[in-house]
Amino acid sequence: MSKALFDKYGGFKSVSRIVMDFYDKVLDSDQIGDYFDGIDLPKLIDHQTKFIAALLGGPVSYSDDRLKRAHASLDLSHEDFDEVSRLLSETLAEHDFAPHDIDTVMSEIESRRTSILSIGRP
């Protein structure tokens, strides 16, 4: 992905606001909110800001191995993943992302599903 989406939507400052709004939804979610009890939220938001920036073609990269290590102990399900995807898509729309740009981001997220979920891993 080119840097176009990262630049188009305002770089890190904008991504940071998106991620903070996204986590407001995540913490309120009955499906996934409990995963974040006792989590260092500012640290998580910092990591997530970099991850979303990477998905938008920003100057950060995350390897599949890093994603696997970060999520290995969480025992996430497909339903959890789908909820995160739904909330992120909703948040991007609220931040005036064009529908085709949301599709691009969601495609990037979907391509990492097997790295994030622990189900089915050897």
Calculate Rg over CA atoms: 14 Å
Number of strands: 0
The average pLDDT is 89
What are the secondary-structure elements, in order, as H or E?
HHHHHHH
Per DSSP, what share of the residues sits in E-state strands of 2 or more residues?
under 5%
Fraction in helix: 55-70%
Largest sheet: none
Helix count, per DSSP? 7
N-to-C span: 30 Å
Task: Write down the overall geometry.
Answer: globular
- Which runs of at least 5 residues are low in confidence (pLDDT < 50)? none
User: Structural class of the helices, strands and pairings?
Assistant: mainly alpha
Q: Outline of this structure?
A:
The chain is mostly helical and 122 residues long. The protein has helices spanning 4-8, 11-28, 41-55, 64-71, 78-94, 99-110, 113-116.
